[in-house]
Amino acid sequence: YRALRHGEAVALPPLSCHYSDFVRWQQQWLHGAEWARQRAYWQQQLANAPTLLSLPTDYPRPARQQFNGGAVTFTLDGAFTNALQALSQQQGVTLFMTLYAAFAVLLARYSGQDDLVIGTTIANRRLREFETLIGFFVNTLALRANLRDNPPFATFLQQARQLLLDAYEHQDLPFEQVVSDVVKAR
Questions:
Q1: Residues facing residue 140 across a β-bridge
Q2: Inter-CA distances, 81 with 56, 77, 145, Å
Q3: Potential cystine with 88: which of 75, 80, 98, 130 (Cβ 3.0-4.6 Å)?
């Protein structure tokens, strides 16, 4: 970018592989033992998972799904962010793990459900060969939160940590395949 901005020649190192190599790797991988292992993980993880999060809303849920929505923007001040980072460090988790756990607790409280699934995206670039490639590698993970028996937040945070680490280990199965192979009802 800097070279282009200053009218200089762009000298990028040659790529060791291309996006088509990733596609080929994924197609071969989808027929191997690792695919079966990851598929079994998601089947176990999402067995009998709830299909709906019942949040209180201003309006009744329409009979036909719509994709109308909005956005709410807010900023966490520096002191609050520092406190979250300190808590995360104290508990041996990442900031994302802390925010995931807090969001799961919030959804559980609003919905009255103690078993829920939260979707999140992951970069899906575990293999070093694909780290420098330009392309869309993102995958979605279905993270199942279990808040039965109302555990203390520190306990749930450790459960969330393990859940996320396990999901990261099984991130390669494409979300579309998880939905079609594992989730029977939508």
A1: 121
A2: 28, 6, 23
A3: 98
> pTM to 2 decimals?
0.83
Distance CA 77, CA 129 (A): 38
Highest mean pLDDT pick, 4-18, 41-55, 86-100, 114-128: 86-100
**Contact present, 101 and 153 (Cβ < 8 Å):** yes
Establish how many alpha carbons lie within 13 A of residue 146's alpha carbon, considering only the half-sphere containing its beta carbon: 13
Phi-psi region of 26 (alpha: psi -120 to 50; beta: other; left: phi over 0): alpha
CA distance 170 to 96: 18
CA distance 139 to 175: 6
Tens-place pLDDT, residues 128-141: 777 778 878 899 99
